[in-house]
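User: Some background: our group keeps a shared notebook of sequences we're curious about, and every so often someone picks one and asks for a predicted structure to add to the entry. Today it's my turn. The entry only has the sequence so far, pasted here. Could you supply the structure so I can complete it?
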Amino acid sequence: MKGVILAAGKGERLGELSRTTPKPMIRVHGEPILAHTIALCRAYGVTELYINTHHLPEVIRTYCGDGSRWGVKIEYSYEPVLLGTAGALRNFGSALGRDPFFVLYGDNYSRYDLQSLERIAKDRRAFAVIAFHWRDDTASSGVAEFDEDGRVLRFVEKPKPGESESRWVNAGIYYFLPGVLQEIPEGYSDFGRDIFPALLRKGLPVYGVRERSDVSAFDTPEMLKESMNRLR
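Assistant: Of course. Here's the predicted structure to add to the notebook entry:
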């Protein structure tokens, strides 16, 4: 199976750390987050991987190479100008082909059950499946509201106080039918702000998997400290 790992972000909110280290290369348990993400993919049979780069691309390419150390195959795309979480997929369109595929944020650390997304996609005939995890503080995240069957009714990116009661936060792991590539416009676009709301407006079946699996983000110094303390 194929998967795209998003690793192009600058991580500017991390300040000095991200000037010399791409955020996906921050080390957790002795290895970069990106290495854990690749290993997670391999564990679930996602062995054809595509990684986008922008900030300090050679650091990522030199460390990951062709992926053979994990038993996977890696191809890269360099973005001179950032294309966003969704726009990045267009560079891999021909390689992704006509089969379903995963997308994972390369700067999140998790042990999420990837197979659970694939099961929901098949059982519900979903166009897209989004992984969610529980978080009390949702101010910096995207949240969703669901019907009783798990279908996403509403997606709110970085909700303002009172905008949504949901605490189910986007885990940055997706399973898509190949048709999603036709829904991504040229240039910059973001899944949370642009693509997911557009899919819902069209009435396409978007479902969520909700697990209390720990997903750690490292977007700010505060989140970095919190995550590192929790993962000790």
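Suggested note for the entry: The chain has one domain: 2-230. Residues 2-230 form a domain with the Spore Coat Polysaccharide Biosynthesis Protein SpsA; Chain A fold (CATH 3.90.550.10).
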